[in-house]
Structure formats: C-alpha cells, structure tokens
Amino acid sequence: MSTTKHNLAPVSTLVLEAPPSTSEYGKPLGLVGQIRRAYLSISRCRDLIFAPYGVTTDQYTLLNVVNNRGEIKQSELSVIMFTDANTISSMVRLLQKKGLLTRTPDPSDNRARLVKLTRSGVQMLQYLSRDWAPMRKRLSDCLDNENGQIALSILKQITAEMTIERTGHLESLQPAHANGTARKRTTISLQHKR
C-alpha cells in the first residue's frame, strides 16, 4: 500500500466555543456536569486539530495504544480504551481500510486478531501528536501543580468507584417487583485494570 504524505501545517490558533457551564435551567453544573464539560472541551479541541487528517479523537487514542504496545490483541483494546468491542471493531476496520494498521490472526489463537500499525500509521501518529503537542502542553500546565495532582487523584478514585467489575452487581442494585421477584436484567460487565 502506498504511503500518503500529509503536508498540512500545524494548527496554531484554535477558536472553540466552550460547552455551557450551567444546565438548561440556569443552575451551575454539578460534579458530573463539570467533568463532562472538561472532557467535551478536550475532545472538541482534539477533533478540530485532527479533522484535516480525517482522524477522530478515539481513533488517535487507538493508534497511540497500538503504537505503545507494538502489537496487541484487538480484544485487549476494548479493555484498555474502556470501549465496547463493536466500537473497537469498527474503528479497527476503518483504520485498516485507511492503511494505518493491519489485522492478522493470532498464531496462538486463530479466533483472535493482532493489530499493528503500518508505516503510514506510525507517520500519521507522528503528525497527529505533533499538532496536538501545544494543546497537550497547555493541559499539562493546568495539572502540573498540587491542585492538579489532587484533581487527577480524585478522577482516578471516581473511575475506580464507578467501574462495575463484578458480574451480577447490577442485579443486586435492581429493585424487586411488587411480588418480590427480581426484574430480569441484562448484565453489563465493564472491565477496568488497575
């Protein structure tokens, strides 16, 4: 597959509209609203930077994870990226179609697929990382103090507390019907490695 050259200049100035800091009722956002607002601000900024390359924030993250691992089972990407397997599968197929990564059968388990960056994928990741670097630095500067470290620690604790690790945990939280029987509920099991 041919290597595509991307001669796009880095984005130096961004004009973004921040998500609202109040609810639709005019009340200040609570903790979850503020976390979501921060996430959306970062995500929108990344999407704007990555748009000229035709890559999304999630695709950039996937390319980074694969690059850091060298080669990784597709199923492991779901766990690491905290994303469902269908979404990962779609992203992998799309990035493979763009020539940014390859998928090959795992020699130790033919049902599993190994994902690896192509040369074009490595090059694309370099461009994306270069263009994201100034904003990443600004974000790091916001967190590079005692309050920032406390905020990161709290976010890690929230993630750990909100992560459902045990199958059946949701059922124990479901109220029973009036006749005393538990409602039938689909179990959602999210995995989170600590």
Describe this structure in words.
Helix 1 packs across helix 5, helix 2 packs across helix 5 and helix 3 packs across helix 4. The N terminus and C terminus are likely disordered. It contains 7 helices and 3 strands, in the order H-H-E-H-H-E-E-H-H-H. The protein has 194 residues and is mostly helical. It has a domain of 116 residues: Arc Repressor Mutant, subunit A. The chain has a 3-stranded antiparallel β-sheet with strand order 1-3-2.
CATH fold-level label of the domain at 31-146: Arc Repressor Mutant, subunit A
Q: Which descriptor suits the 3D outline?
A: globular
> Helix/strand/pairing class, anyone?
mainly alpha
Strand content: 5-15%
Helix content: 40-55%
- Would you count the extended β strands for me? 3
Q: How far apart are the first and last residues' alpha carbons, in Å?
A: 38 Å
Question: Count of helices?
Answer: 7
Uncertain regions spanning at least 5 consecutive residues:
1-15, 182-194
Strand order of the largest sheet: 1-3-2
What is the residue-averaged pLDDT? 78
Name of the CATH class of the domain at 31-146:
Mainly Alpha
Name of the CATH homologous superfamily of the domain at 31-146: Winged helix-like DNA-binding domain superfamily/Winged helix DNA-binding domain
Largest sheet: 3 strands, antiparallel
**What is the chain-wise order of helices and strands?**
HHEHHEEHHH
CATH architecture of the domain at 31-146: Orthogonal Bundle
Radius of gyration (Å): 20 Å
